[in-house]
Protein backbone atom coordinates (compact mmCIF):
# COMPACT_ATOMS: atom_id res chain seq x y z
CA UNK A 1 0.00 0.00 0.00
CA UNK A 2 2.90 2.30 0.86
CA UNK A 3 4.41 1.71 -2.60
CA UNK A 4 1.14 2.72 -4.21
CA UNK A 5 0.87 5.81 -2.02
CA UNK A 6 4.46 6.74 -2.80
CA UNK A 7 3.78 6.38 -6.53
CA UNK A 8 0.65 8.54 -6.35
CA UNK A 9 2.47 11.17 -4.30
CA UNK A 10 5.25 11.30 -6.89
CA UNK A 11 2.76 11.69 -9.74
CA UNK A 12 0.85 14.43 -7.89
CA UNK A 13 4.00 16.32 -7.05
CA UNK A 14 5.33 16.08 -10.63
CA UNK A 15 2.07 17.22 -12.20
CA UNK A 16 2.58 20.93 -13.14
CA UNK A 17 -0.14 23.18 -11.74
CA UNK A 18 -0.42 25.16 -14.95
CA UNK A 19 -2.04 22.12 -16.53
CA UNK A 20 -5.01 22.45 -14.17
CA UNK A 21 -6.89 24.95 -16.25
CA UNK A 22 -10.33 23.74 -15.52
CA UNK A 23 -12.23 23.02 -12.36
CA UNK A 24 -12.82 19.39 -13.32
CA UNK A 25 -9.12 18.60 -13.19
CA UNK A 26 -8.95 20.03 -9.70
CA UNK A 27 -11.93 17.97 -8.56
CA UNK A 28 -10.41 14.77 -9.93
CA UNK A 29 -7.12 15.47 -8.17
CA UNK A 30 -8.96 16.18 -4.94
CA UNK A 31 -10.72 12.81 -5.17
CA UNK A 32 -7.38 11.11 -5.78
CA UNK A 33 -5.91 12.72 -2.69
CA UNK A 34 -8.90 11.70 -0.56
CA UNK A 35 -8.48 8.12 -1.72
CA UNK A 36 -4.86 8.00 -0.54
CA UNK A 37 -5.14 10.35 2.41
CA UNK A 38 -3.38 7.86 4.67
CA UNK A 39 -0.36 7.37 2.47
CA UNK A 40 1.90 10.09 3.79
CA UNK A 41 1.97 13.40 5.59
CA UNK A 42 3.08 14.87 2.25
CA UNK A 43 -0.54 14.45 1.16
CA UNK A 44 -1.45 17.43 3.33
CA UNK A 45 0.84 19.58 1.21
CA UNK A 46 -0.62 18.21 -1.98
CA UNK A 47 -4.13 18.67 -0.58
CA UNK A 48 -3.41 22.32 0.17
CA UNK A 49 -1.97 22.85 -3.33
CA UNK A 50 -4.91 21.21 -5.00
CA UNK A 51 -7.44 23.08 -2.85
CA UNK A 52 -5.71 26.36 -3.64
CA UNK A 53 -5.71 25.54 -7.35
CA UNK A 54 -9.42 24.70 -7.26
CA UNK A 55 -10.13 28.03 -5.58
CA UNK A 56 -8.04 29.84 -8.19
CA UNK A 57 -9.85 27.99 -10.98
CA UNK A 58 -13.24 28.97 -9.52
CA UNK A 59 -12.16 32.61 -9.32
CA UNK A 60 -10.87 32.52 -12.90
CA UNK A 61 -14.12 30.91 -14.08
CA UNK A 62 -16.21 33.55 -12.29
CA UNK A 63 -14.03 36.31 -13.78
CA UNK A 64 -14.44 34.86 -17.28
CA UNK A 65 -18.22 34.57 -16.81
CA UNK A 66 -18.44 38.16 -15.57
CA UNK A 67 -16.33 39.30 -18.49
CA UNK A 68 -18.54 37.41 -20.95
CA UNK A 69 -21.69 38.75 -19.31
CA UNK A 70 -20.29 42.26 -19.51
CA UNK A 71 -19.56 41.88 -23.21
CA UNK A 72 -23.08 40.60 -23.88
CA UNK A 73 -24.75 43.39 -21.94
CA UNK A 74 -22.63 46.02 -23.67
CA UNK A 75 -22.43 44.84 -27.28
CA UNK A 76 -20.37 46.81 -29.74
CA UNK A 77 -22.50 49.55 -31.23
CA UNK A 78 -23.57 49.10 -34.84
CA UNK A 79 -22.13 51.69 -37.24
CA UNK A 80 -24.57 54.50 -37.96
CA UNK A 81 -25.77 54.51 -41.59
CA UNK A 82 -24.78 57.59 -43.58
CA UNK A 83 -28.35 58.74 -43.99
CA UNK A 84 -28.86 58.69 -40.20
CA UNK A 85 -25.67 60.67 -39.57
CA UNK A 86 -26.62 63.53 -41.91
CA UNK A 87 -27.75 66.49 -39.84
CA UNK A 88 -27.10 69.37 -42.24
CA UNK A 89 -29.33 69.54 -45.34
CA UNK A 90 -26.42 71.23 -47.12
CA UNK A 91 -24.74 67.78 -47.16
CA UNK A 92 -27.76 65.78 -48.33
CA UNK A 93 -27.36 63.65 -51.44
CA UNK A 94 -30.65 62.20 -52.67
CA UNK A 95 -30.37 58.77 -54.28
CA UNK A 96 -32.17 57.76 -57.41
CA UNK A 97 -33.50 54.21 -57.19
CA UNK A 98 -34.99 52.18 -60.04
CA UNK A 99 -35.34 55.29 -62.20
CA UNK A 100 -37.12 57.41 -59.60
CA UNK A 101 -36.27 60.33 -57.30
CA UNK A 102 -38.76 61.69 -54.74
CA UNK A 103 -37.68 64.54 -52.44
CA UNK A 104 -39.48 66.67 -49.88
CA UNK A 105 -38.76 70.25 -50.99
CA UNK A 106 -38.07 71.48 -47.44
CA UNK A 107 -34.99 69.21 -47.24
CA UNK A 108 -32.56 71.90 -48.38
CA UNK A 109 -30.91 75.03 -47.03
CA UNK A 110 -33.14 78.04 -47.77
CA UNK A 111 -32.17 81.67 -47.35
CA UNK A 112 -33.83 85.06 -47.41
CA UNK A 113 -37.63 84.93 -47.57
CA UNK A 114 -38.33 81.23 -48.08
CA UNK A 115 -40.54 80.05 -45.21
CA UNK A 116 -41.78 76.67 -44.03
CA UNK A 117 -45.59 76.52 -43.82
CA UNK A 118 -47.97 73.89 -42.44
CA UNK A 119 -51.43 75.24 -43.18
CA UNK A 120 -53.92 72.97 -44.90
CA UNK A 121 -53.70 69.21 -45.26
CA UNK A 122 -52.55 68.67 -48.84
CA UNK A 123 -48.81 68.72 -48.17
CA UNK A 124 -46.61 65.86 -46.97
CA UNK A 125 -43.54 65.74 -44.76
CA UNK A 126 -42.72 68.58 -42.36
CA UNK A 127 -44.56 71.16 -44.47
CA UNK A 128 -43.99 73.10 -47.68
CA UNK A 129 -41.77 76.02 -48.65
CA UNK A 130 -43.20 79.29 -49.94
CA UNK A 131 -41.38 82.37 -51.22
CA UNK A 132 -42.63 85.47 -49.37
CA UNK A 133 -40.09 88.02 -50.55
CA UNK A 134 -40.16 90.38 -53.49
CA UNK A 135 -40.79 89.05 -56.99
CA UNK A 136 -37.90 88.30 -59.35
CA UNK A 137 -39.85 87.93 -62.58
CA UNK A 138 -36.92 88.45 -64.94
CA UNK A 139 -33.90 88.08 -62.68
CA UNK A 140 -33.08 84.50 -61.55
CA UNK A 141 -30.41 83.72 -58.98
CA UNK A 142 -32.05 85.18 -55.87
CA UNK A 143 -33.09 83.09 -52.87
CA UNK A 144 -31.31 80.10 -54.40
CA UNK A 145 -31.49 76.59 -52.92
CA UNK A 146 -29.64 73.53 -54.22
CA UNK A 147 -30.28 69.79 -54.20
CA UNK A 148 -27.61 67.16 -54.88
CA UNK A 149 -29.05 64.18 -56.74
CA UNK A 150 -27.12 60.96 -57.32
CA UNK A 151 -28.11 59.14 -60.50
CA UNK A 152 -27.25 55.43 -60.78
CA UNK A 153 -29.35 54.73 -63.89
CA UNK A 154 -28.43 57.25 -66.60
CA UNK A 155 -31.03 58.41 -69.07
CA UNK A 156 -33.70 61.03 -69.67
CA UNK A 157 -35.75 62.05 -66.63
CA UNK A 158 -39.05 63.89 -66.51
CA UNK A 159 -39.26 66.56 -63.77
CA UNK A 160 -42.48 67.54 -61.93
CA UNK A 161 -43.08 69.32 -58.65
CA UNK A 162 -46.09 69.41 -56.34
CA UNK A 163 -46.95 73.08 -55.91
CA UNK A 164 -49.75 75.50 -55.04
CA UNK A 165 -50.70 79.16 -55.35
CA UNK A 166 -50.65 80.63 -51.85
CA UNK A 167 -51.25 84.29 -52.70
CA UNK A 168 -54.33 85.69 -54.43
CA UNK A 169 -57.08 83.86 -56.28
CA UNK A 170 -55.69 83.65 -59.80
CA UNK A 171 -54.15 80.48 -61.17
CA UNK A 172 -51.93 82.47 -63.55
CA UNK A 173 -50.27 84.67 -60.91
CA UNK A 174 -47.91 83.71 -58.08
CA UNK A 175 -47.60 80.28 -59.66
CA UNK A 176 -43.96 79.82 -60.70
CA UNK A 177 -40.33 79.46 -59.58
CA UNK A 178 -37.00 79.37 -61.45
CA UNK A 179 -35.39 75.97 -62.06
CA UNK A 180 -31.99 74.98 -63.48
CA UNK A 181 -29.87 71.85 -64.00
CA UNK A 182 -26.64 73.53 -65.00
CA UNK A 183 -24.35 70.48 -64.96
CA UNK A 184 -26.74 68.00 -66.61
CA UNK A 185 -25.90 66.72 -70.08
CA UNK A 186 -29.07 68.35 -71.42
CA UNK A 187 -31.93 70.36 -69.99
CA UNK A 188 -34.95 71.14 -72.15
CA UNK A 189 -38.75 71.12 -72.45
CA UNK A 190 -41.14 69.36 -74.86
CA UNK A 191 -44.82 69.64 -75.59
CA UNK A 192 -47.13 66.68 -74.98
CA UNK A 193 -47.05 65.67 -78.62
CA UNK A 194 -43.25 65.61 -78.76
CA UNK A 195 -43.31 67.93 -81.78
CA UNK A 196 -41.67 70.93 -80.12
CA UNK A 197 -38.48 71.15 -78.04
CA UNK A 198 -37.13 74.32 -76.43
CA UNK A 199 -34.03 75.17 -74.39
CA UNK A 200 -33.30 77.79 -71.73
CA UNK A 201 -31.85 81.06 -72.95
CA UNK A 202 -28.10 81.73 -72.79
CA UNK A 203 -27.16 78.07 -73.27
CA UNK A 204 -26.23 78.44 -76.96
CA UNK A 205 -29.14 76.18 -77.83
CA UNK A 206 -32.30 77.12 -79.68
CA UNK A 207 -35.21 77.50 -79.99
CA UNK A 208 -36.05 79.18 -76.67
CA UNK A 209 -39.47 79.33 -75.03
CA UNK A 210 -41.86 82.26 -75.08
CA UNK A 211 -41.79 83.98 -71.73
CA UNK A 212 -39.09 84.44 -69.14
CA UNK A 213 -35.84 82.50 -69.35
CA UNK A 214 -32.24 83.51 -68.60
CA UNK A 215 -28.77 82.07 -67.87
CA UNK A 216 -29.93 78.50 -68.28
CA UNK A 217 -33.00 78.92 -66.03
CA UNK A 218 -36.52 77.94 -66.99
CA UNK A 219 -39.51 79.66 -65.45
CA UNK A 220 -41.46 76.63 -64.27
CA UNK A 221 -45.14 77.13 -63.57
CA UNK A 222 -48.37 75.36 -62.68
CA UNK A 223 -51.68 76.51 -64.18
CA UNK A 224 -55.42 76.29 -63.58
CA UNK A 225 -57.77 77.87 -61.07
CA UNK A 226 -57.54 74.90 -58.70
CA UNK A 227 -55.00 76.67 -56.49
CA UNK A 228 -54.26 73.83 -54.09
CA UNK A 229 -51.25 71.53 -54.47
CA UNK A 230 -51.04 69.48 -57.65
CA UNK A 231 -48.44 67.75 -59.80
CA UNK A 232 -47.60 70.03 -62.72
CA UNK A 233 -44.45 71.70 -64.05
CA UNK A 234 -44.41 73.52 -67.36
CA UNK A 235 -42.55 76.24 -69.21
CA UNK A 236 -43.34 78.29 -72.37
CA UNK A 237 -46.19 80.81 -71.97
CA UNK A 238 -49.58 79.68 -73.30
CA UNK A 239 -48.02 76.55 -74.80
CA UNK A 240 -47.19 74.21 -71.95
CA UNK A 241 -43.96 72.24 -72.39
CA UNK A 242 -42.90 69.54 -69.92
CA UNK A 243 -39.47 69.65 -68.24
CA UNK A 244 -36.79 67.03 -69.04
CA UNK A 245 -33.22 66.43 -67.94
CA UNK A 246 -30.60 64.15 -69.52
CA UNK A 247 -28.14 62.42 -67.18
CA UNK A 248 -25.66 60.56 -69.36
CA UNK A 249 -23.47 59.02 -66.66
CA UNK A 250 -23.92 57.80 -63.09
CA UNK A 251 -22.80 60.54 -60.70
CA UNK A 252 -24.07 63.41 -58.53
CA UNK A 253 -25.84 66.30 -60.28
CA UNK A 254 -26.91 69.69 -58.94
CA UNK A 255 -30.49 70.95 -59.15
CA UNK A 256 -30.98 74.67 -58.44
CA UNK A 257 -34.13 76.53 -57.46
CA UNK A 258 -34.44 80.31 -57.45
CA UNK A 259 -37.24 82.58 -56.18
CA UNK A 260 -39.53 84.18 -58.77
CA UNK A 261 -43.19 84.70 -57.79
CA UNK A 262 -44.24 85.70 -54.30
CA UNK A 263 -46.65 83.16 -52.84
CA UNK A 264 -45.65 80.11 -54.90
CA UNK A 265 -45.56 77.13 -52.50
CA UNK A 266 -43.66 73.92 -53.27
CA UNK A 267 -44.08 70.71 -51.28
CA UNK A 268 -41.99 68.06 -53.09
CA UNK A 269 -40.67 67.03 -56.51
CA UNK A 270 -40.04 63.90 -58.56
CA UNK A 271 -37.68 62.89 -61.34
CA UNK A 272 -38.40 59.67 -63.22
CA UNK A 273 -37.11 57.95 -66.35
CA UNK A 274 -39.01 56.02 -69.00
CA UNK A 275 -38.98 52.83 -66.92
CA UNK A 276 -41.55 54.48 -64.64
CA UNK A 277 -44.94 55.75 -65.77
CA UNK A 278 -46.06 59.22 -64.75
CA UNK A 279 -49.01 57.73 -62.85
CA UNK A 280 -46.72 55.41 -60.86
CA UNK A 281 -44.22 58.18 -60.18
CA UNK A 282 -46.93 60.48 -58.81
CA UNK A 283 -48.48 57.68 -56.74
CA UNK A 284 -45.15 56.70 -55.20
CA UNK A 285 -44.68 57.67 -51.55
CA UNK A 286 -41.22 56.20 -50.89
CA UNK A 287 -38.81 59.07 -50.41
CA UNK A 288 -35.35 58.83 -51.91
CA UNK A 289 -32.57 57.65 -49.62
CA UNK A 290 -30.13 60.24 -48.35
CA UNK A 291 -26.34 59.98 -48.17
CA UNK A 292 -23.93 62.55 -46.77
CA UNK A 293 -21.77 64.40 -49.28
Describe the overall structure.
- With 293 residues, the protein is an alpha+beta fold.
- Helices cover 23% and strands 29% of the residues.
- It is built from 5 helices and 17 strands.
- A hairpin with a 2-residue loop joins strand 10 (213-214) and strand 11.
- Helix 2 packs antiparallel against helix 3.
- The protein is globular.
- It starts with a helix and ends with a strand.
- 31% of the residues are buried.
Query: Number of DSSP helices?
Result: 5
Main pleated sheet: 10 strands, antiparallel
Order of helices and strands: HHHHEEEEEEEEEEEEEEEEHE
Q: Which percent range describes the beta-strand content?
A: 25-35%
Rough outline: globular
> How big is the Rg?
38 Å
Q: Identify low-pLDDT runs.
A: 1-12, 17-47, 63-83
Work out the number of β strands.
17
Give helix % range: 10-25%
Overall mean confidence score, pLDDT: 82
SS-derived structural category: alpha+beta
Distance between the termini: 84 Å
Architecture blueprint of SSEs:
Elements: H1 2-14, H2 23-35, H3 42-73, H4 82-85, E1 92-95, E2 100-104, E3 114-117, E4 128-131, E5 145-151, E6 155-165, E7 176-180, E8 186-190, E9 197-198, E10 213-214, E11 217-221, E12 230-231, E13 234-235, E14 241-247, E15 251-258, E16 264-272, H5 278-283, E17 290-292
Parallel strand pairs: 1-5
Antiparallel strand pairs: 1-17, 2-16, 3-4, 4-16, 5-15, 6-12, 6-14, 6-16, 7-11, 7-15, 8-9, 8-14, 10-11, 13-14
Helix pairs in contact: 2-3
